[in-house]
Specification:
The structure holds 2 protein chains of 2 kinds. Chain A is α+β, with helices and mostly antiparallel strands. Chain A folds into 2 domains: about 70 residues, no CATH class; about 70 residues, no CATH class. Helices cover about 50% and strands about 15% of the residues of chain A. Chain A is built from 6 helices and 4 strands. In chain A, helix 1 runs antiparallel to helix 3. By secondary structure, chain B is mainly α. Chain B has a domain of about 110 residues. Chain B is rod-shaped. The chains are: A alpha+beta, B mainly alpha.
């Protein structure tokens, strides 16, 4: 069964955090089972982020989590090797805008894209897309730089 | 020289005259003496002593008069000659000076001509160089002006772009840009997809 990256796991940081939480949960389950066998008091279950919970729900369904299933899930995530794209905007977007952009990349480019976000007010507006091997600059700054040769003529025509 | 000759002639003529008178007197005296001794009672004498003295005085007077006349004449001749000599000298010196001046003026004229020619050539040369220099300077000024204009245009473009970018920097509304962003991504979807698919 092909595994698709959940829509709410958008950024590389979230992806790594989900992986970490799953591994921690698996380790807790493993330790709890051993402690139960020896009669020791198990450690409190570690908390998970909403993204991790949603991933678990989609993976496990109604079943209770087990070490085997969690190991399989972790392995699927490791095999996934998602592509990371960095986007630069004039300001940091909110969650809605982040989700919109991530959905666009996963719909139009690859379903396993992770999108990192950063802000740079000097670009004025627009977007800069940085892939692992190329930069696509669609910012206002670049548009102005490309058209700066026309500015003197425009000024003369106005004058 | 003429003076001396003239005076000499006069003197000789006077002496001859005196000699002739004395001889005549002596001949007359001897003739009367002969007549007197030969004929018994003598004929009367030709010139008496007083007459001879008078004649000598007259001769002397005439001689002195002649001398004076000759001297005066000679003086006048000398004056005239001196005047003529002066005139000749003046004319000769004037001619010489005039000739020298004329030569000097000719030389000056030639020098002036040469100088004028040289000045004309210098002027033409300077004028040509001035025109050439002006052309070169105008060309350089035009090039420099064009460079300044190009540099200004470049800088102005950068200044305007920086100003706009700086002006837009604050208060960015991403929500209003999303339409532009999504349209831009849609327009470049193929390139993005190709890069994300093939580059890995």
């Amino acid at each position: 069964m092909a595994f698709n990256l959940p829509s709410d796991i958008t950024t590389p940081q979230v992806f790594e955090a989900v992986q970490f939480e799953l591994e921690r949960l698996r380790d807790w389950l493993s330790n709890s089972a051993v402690k139960c066998k020896v009669g020791a008091k198990p450690v409190h279950e570690p908390s998970c982020s909403p993204e991790t919970k949603q991933l678990l729900d989609s993976w496990l369904g109604d079943k209770a989590p087990s070490v085997t299933q969690l190991t399989a899930l972790i392995e699927e995530l490791r095999k996934l090797k998602p592509v990371t794209v960095h986007i630069v905007l004039a300001a940091l977007p909110g969650d809605d805008l982040k989700q919109t952009l991530v959905d666009w990349f996963r719909t139009n480019c690859r379903p396993d894209v992770l999108v990192g976000f950063s802000a740079d007010r000097t670009i004025g507006g627009g977007i800069i897309v940085r892939t692992p091997n190329r930069i696509f600059d669609y910012s206002f700054r670049e548009r102005l730089a490309q058209g700066r040769a026309n500015i003197p003529e425009l000024v003369r025509n106005v004058g | 020289m003429y003076l001396y000759v003239g005076v000499g002639l006069i003197f000789v003529s006077v002496l001859y005259l005196v000699y002739a008178v004395n001889r005549q007197a002596s001949l007359a005296q001897s003739s009367s003496d002969k007549t007197k001794t030969h004929n018994g009672p003598t004929a009367p004498e030709l010139l008496s002593t007083a007459q001879v003295a008078e004649l000598e005085a007259k001769l002397k007077q005439a001689y002195e008069h002649q001398i004076e006349t000759a001297s005066a004449h000679l003086g006048e001749e000398l004056k005239a000659t001196s005047a003529r000599l002066n005139e000749q000298v003046v004319r000769l010196t004037t001619n010489v000076i005039e000739a020298e001046l004329e030569g000097y003026q000719k030389t000056l004229e030639e020098v002036r001509k040469v100088s004028n020619e040289t000045m004309k050539q210098l002027y033409h040369s300077v004028e040509e160089q001035r025109v050439e220099l002006r052309k070169t300077m105008e060309q350089e000024l035009a090039e420099e002006r064009q460079q300044l204009i190009s540099r200004f245009d470049t800088r102005m473009g950068e200044i305007v772009a920086s100003y706009i970018t700086e002006s837009l920097g604050g208060g960015v509304d991403l929500g209003s840009q999303m339409t532009y962003i999504t349209e831009t991504l849609d327009a470049n979807k193929a390139a993005l997809k190709k890069n994300l698919s093939s580059g890995l």
